[in-house]
Amino acid sequence: MWEAYIKGFKAYMQLERSLSDNTVEAYQHDVAMLSQYVQAVHSGIDPTNIELRHLKEFLGHINEMELAAGSQARIISGVKSFFRYLLLEDVIKVDPSELLESPKMQRTLPDFLSIEEIDRLFSAIDHTSPKGQRNRAMLETLYSCGLRVSELINLMISNLYLDVGFIKVLGKGNKERLVPIGGEAVRQIKLYKDHVRSHMKIKPGQEDILFLNRRGAGLSRVMVFLILKDLTQKAGIKKNIHPHVLRHSFATHLVEAGADLRAVQEMLGHKSITTTEIYTHLDRGYLRNTLERYHPRYGK
Asked: Choosing from 242, 247, 248, 253, which is the catalytic residue?
């Protein structure tokens, strides 16, 4: 159903609006992203019964992907054009995207989990099943290393240096960085590799991917989102949680404990220290303690 509407949308952009090939391709890609997400999270939903709430969830999903605000705005523009096309064609009677707002150009931060909530989240995992063992190793790695979800699903066995407590990560712009990994994450990865992954039939070409689905292939972003969403509900956590929240929690907990921002920047793979500095506003107590400790005239 989605494919037919997207095909019609492409013809409309080319023939009636005479848009450039690049714009047509970009808008097609944007709608395909929406289609993939909605069908994974809400099975049976097609463009004729999409609601604003579904589009807001999708907006949260692309925000989790750490795209620039300008890129997110472009995707929303493509989605809005798609629903305007459906309205013109009389496929829908009401445009669900009409009230969808583009992201503000300043960076906004999602919720983060407290240490107690992290413990509850991990306790909600069923450790008796192979899937549960994989999920524990996966989420421990996300939180221990502050990874982006794309870095997690592309993590290679050949880039694990667990004996010295480091992993090599391929980040944005194909830039590699070495990230320290904690003891619990190392233990869970070894358990998963030795007792789950070693017994799986792995698809050709996927032999070096660490975290696999039950068919022996790498996981998708959406799959990680669904796993985390399910565990959040089981743990009784009432926050809007995405995989990025574990990365955000990692940085927040380090900064609150007094970690050096340059070290946190290096571990997160931030190009600029100003990106890392956004985490300092989360704990005003940390800032005050820093001032009290280091300013020579504070309190005089």
From this structure: 247
